Amino acid sequence: MINDGRRLACAGVKSNRIFPILLTCAVLALAACGDEKPSTTAGPAATSASAVPSTAAPSPSAAAVSDKDLCTAAEKINKDMRTKLMAVVQGGGDLTKETGAILTELGDRVTKLAGTAGDGEAAIALKEFGAEAGKAGSAPDPGTAADNPAMEKASKDINAACKTAGAPTTF
């Protein structure tokens, strides 16, 4: 495990649920994959763009993405953001600044993805989550801002809707 000041930061994250989506998952991933080497790529994976079914807003005549497809794409985005956060935690970067950027990107990507879907439970929860992640990302202390009941509720709503749709997520 990490033996410097970051260990305390990670332990605090786990006990305080500061980043209900990102940091908790990052801490769990660190514990589960402690012997794995971190990815050396700092940018988003080349396949991350394919996680969003369409880059344009759907036209009224276009078929909306199903909740199952929406959830599958959302989980890919979530994993990509966790990978980025892991790289920051392991690399010793400015956790506050980088977390804000990651939360902002997460909010933007999830909101854009939700725009490709109809008005299903998963799409509604993703839109709510995207708005909360964006607010937290632009806050002076993104970690504290992300630890709020609205973001926690949206995370639970995404997981419940996606489980029902047959594509479980770990938000």
From TrEMBL:
Could you list this entry's UniProt keywords, alphabetically sorted.
Answer: Signal
Q: Which residues form the signal peptide?
A: 1-31
Indicate whether Signal appears among the record's keywords: yes
Region Disordered: list its residue ranges.
39-60
Reading the lineage from the top rank, the first entry is Bacteria
This one is known as Small secreted protein
Q: Which organism is it from?
A: Micromonospora echinospora
